[in-house]
Amino acid sequence: MIIDPISIALITLGGVLIGLGVHFIPVGGAPAAMAQATGVGTGTVQLAAGAGLTGLISAGFMYNFLATAPGGFGTSDFILVLASGAVGSMIMITVTMFIGQLVYVYCVGVPPVSAKVDKDPITGDRQDIYVSQGTEGHGVPTVSFVSGTIGGLFGGLGGSLIYVQLMQIGNAPADPAIVALAAIFATGVFYVNSVLASYNIGGTIEGFHDPKFKRVPKAILSCLIASLLCAIIAVPIMGGVS
Amino acid sequence: MIDPITGLGIVALMGALATIAGAAEDLESDVGSQSNPNSQVQLAAQMDFPHRIFNKAISGEPPAYGLWCATGATVASVLLAQNMSVIFAIAIGSLAGAILLGLFSVTAHMGRTASQKRFKQPVYMDMVIGHVPPIIAHGFIAVFCIVSFSYIMNTILLHPFPLPLLALLWGITAGAIGSSTGDVHYGAEREFQNQPFGSGLNAAQSGNIVRKAESGLRNGMDNVWACAKFGGPVTGLALGGTVFFDNWRSTVFSGMNAVIAGLIIVLILILANRLVEVKARKAYGPYKDEEGGAEPA
Q: CA dist A166 to A13, A163, A180, Å?
């Protein structure tokens, strides 16, 4: 019995990309919901999953369109589906961060600011003097916004990669049972990796400029192991055993 | 394949449904106090501030809304398989999801409040009777709209995911958006109107939530009344925007052009965010002087 090694490798890579993507997304958890910390005011897993699953819906759409078209499903189609998933995820995360920003600025009345750096690495704006007393920053400054967009890119890419690979193993793009199984499994792997990454982050992270971002290698290793286990279970279920 | 004009109309309808769903989702979480801002409601009693605000954090909003929407869509799918009319099937399915939300609200509120007996936080029965129907009503609107646009996506746009799965995924996304946008209005502004506007919320004030209303003691109804003026509508815009932009690009363009169109939307939003940031920094100014010392006059 041989389990398809390329599928295992690609699904594991998808899981690692999700774990990496979560670290880029600026989340402040409950403190950010009270404008006491920089980032979006929700949990790491919640926002990453919301973005990644929107990407999965986009990828599912594109895969169905390309795989059922005459001419088969080639490498360029594979890339197109991944790109579609990544962009779907990026749209969700940027719309959410932008509207969240409007709430911080026009409703709470605080400027977007990072408490982890003195100057925004992208715009060069001074940050420390804009932090209100007794808080760890508030809102989504440009550096966090760009970081969140990159997080959406990786998350959407990883989720779509897992979905497409499972669909390729299932080899029945029009069968609703195969589609549902692949999508639910992709969702499951998404949650496994975002929860793991969330433990590594420990509640709040501002983006790639945050000192906590240096913990990424640990997350990559743990996501690699967890995703490998998920892949070993998923591939035979979808029929990838010869 | 549907023609582009009809396709755009369908996408616009989905965006409108998502906008209503987002607003109702956020307002439901304000009546019942769910998600991150509820940590302050929970903390208030422990900090010796007993209150009359509904306290139900069933779970994070995304998994909760995933559950209500998947329940609604599953019931609707079964009824549709029995040849029931679409509107009735979705309405009955959504009602099932909303009733489930109501049941969880009662148990979550009573369980949480009863566990605070040692902090002398009473369980007000009139609050349970008064708050649960609006929670179910807002939840019904949100679930109905999410299941409806998932149905349109599945049946008319021919998305391959089955209806309950699409509703589950969109429910999770709706919860994530509501928790990230509108809840900040409730958590950072409405709960702490006893602090000067724009001062930022000092962590030392945690738990010191506003307990008096415009008239009488404040409860979840007073909160939803205020949040319906900003937090709810912008949450609707966020979910509506996500659904509309994501489907618009794949309806108008195809292949790599749809990806490029999506990237342009993302770029525009990054620039718009920068404009808002610059405007806010100019309007509010720094909290300290340039040397990082005392507050400027």
A: 13, 5, 11
Q: What is the ipTM of this complex?
A: 0.95
Which of helix, strand or coil describes residue A136? strand
Q: What is the pLDDT of residues B54-90, one digit of tens each?
A: 999 888 899 999 999 999 999 999 999 999 999 999 9
Contacts of B187 in chain A (CB under 8 A): 30, 33-35, 41
Closest residue of chain A to B171, computed from CA coordinates: A50
Query: Does the structure show a pLDDT above 90 at B230?
Result: yes
In angstroms, rounded to a whole number, what is the distance separating the alpha carbons of residues A201 and A25?
11
- Are residues B161 and A180, on separate chains, in Cβ contact within 8 Å? yes
Q: List the domain boundaries for chain B.
A: 4-252
Rounded CA-CA distance A85/A77 in Å is 12
Look at B198 and A110 and tell me if their CB atoms are within 8 Å.
yes
- What's the rounded mean pLDDT across residues B166-174? 96
Domain hosting residue A17, numbered range: 5-238
Cα–Cα dist B88/B4, whole Å:
29
- The predicted pLDDT at position A72 comes to 79
Cβ atoms A110, B198 nearer than 8 A = yes
Q: Would you list the DSSP string of B218-278?
A: --HHHHHHHHTTTHHHHHHHHHHHHHHHHHHHHHH--THHHHHHHHHHHHHHHHHHHHHHH
In the predicted model, is pLDDT for residue B296 greater than 60? no
pTM of the predicted model, to two decimals?
Answer: 0.95
Nearest CB neighbour to A57, from listed B169, B185, B276: B169
Number of independent structural domains in chain A = 1
pLDDT at residue A198 tops 70: yes
- Select from A44, A47, A56, A61 the residue whose CB has the most chain B CBs within 10 Å, as the one to mutate to test that interface: A61
Model pLDDT for residues B117-140, shown as the tens digit of each residue: 999 999 999 999 999 999 999 999
Query: Which residue out of A24, A99, A123, A127 would a mutagenesis test of the B interface target, given it has the greatest number of B Cβ atoms within 10 Å?
Result: A99
Give chain B positions within 8 Å (CB) of A43. Answer: 36, 60, 179
Kindly list the distances between the CA atom of residue B273 and the CA atoms of A144, A221, B280, B287, in Å, as whole numbers in the listed order. Answer: 11, 34, 11, 21
Beta bridge partners of A37: A136
